[in-house]
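Here is the promised in-class demo. Please do not try to memorize the tokens; focus on the logic of going from shape to residues.
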């Protein structure tokens, strides 16, 4: 745990070697990365955290000010702790909303990153700024229905969001404790979406990112999510785009070994180039 003046931040680490900070998505904690970390076989020092409002990380945003900068500040604190006194290079890997927050960290350029991996970020604004109104509307229609259902008191309102990403029946297929945590943290997830829509992703902003970047998408993910991440890779200079075969949005759970292999290979290539 990091005892930050603005609120506690989840922090855990395991293994030795080059440092990777793993940022999970909404409705989860750093534990979501355990299958991927296990597949890495101890070759890296793996640091995990939880986003604001999840696990032990204290919420800093409000409905009136859902700025994604508050999330980025929290991850920057984790990166600084992970880098330590030796200022070791840190590879930042984020999934879903954690991927968007990790991108925000890179765009802010307040901490030094060795690389950035974005695993299917919810990035609706890049669809808006790059002239994809139908796909942008797909995101907005989903969140409008989801928010309205929550306001009506539908306890399972978040099911619509989960199934948008994973396909029909995804939420129902989750273990009861996972579904229960998603329902419990629905108000936080709604705040996450406000933060996502707050994140401006113009071509100019993306073209200013200088961190070596890898973008992942799932072969069976929603077309709006696929296109948004394709556009991120297109406009971030020299970014690589890789499809996780057979996967959809929740790839770090369903295809952990594949994600670990792709990330490890990308980092190995970067380290070989730097040697």
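The designed amino acids, position by position:
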């Amino acid at each position: 745990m990091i005892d930050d003046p603005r609120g506690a931040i989840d922090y855990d680490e395991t293994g030795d070697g080059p440092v990777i900070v793993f940022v999970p998505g909404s409705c989860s904690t750093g534990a979501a990365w355990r299958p991927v970390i296990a597949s890495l076989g101890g070759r890296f020092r793996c640091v995990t955290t939880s986003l604001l409002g999840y696990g032990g990380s204290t919420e800093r945003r409000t409905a009136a000010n859902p700025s994604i900068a508050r999330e980025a500040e929290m991850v920057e604190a984790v990166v600084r702790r992970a880098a330590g006194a030796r200022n070791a290079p840190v590879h930042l890997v984020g999934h879903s909303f954690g991927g968007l927050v990790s991108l925000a960290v890179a765009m802010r350029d307040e901490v030094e990153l060795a690389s950035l991996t974005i695993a299917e970020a919810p990035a609706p604004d890049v669809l808006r700024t790059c002239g994809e109104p139908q796909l942008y509307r797909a995101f907005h229609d989903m969140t409008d229905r989801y928010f309205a259902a929550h306001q009506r008191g539908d306890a399972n309102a978040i099911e619509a969001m989960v199934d948008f990403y994973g396909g029909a029946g995804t939420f129902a297929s989750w273990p009861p404790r996972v579904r229960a945590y998603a329902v419990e943290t629905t108000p936080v997830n709604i705040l996450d979406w406000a933060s996502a829509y707050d994140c401006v992703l113009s071509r100019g902003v993306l073209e200013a990112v200088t961190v070596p970047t890898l973008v992942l998408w799932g072969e069976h993910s929603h077309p709006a999510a696929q296109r948004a991440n394709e556009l991120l890779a297109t406009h971030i200079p020299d970014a690589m785009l890789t499809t996780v075969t057979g996967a959809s949005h929740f790839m770090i759970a369903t295809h952990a070994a594949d994600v670990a292999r792709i990330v490890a290979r990308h980092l190995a290539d970067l380290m070989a180039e730097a040697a």
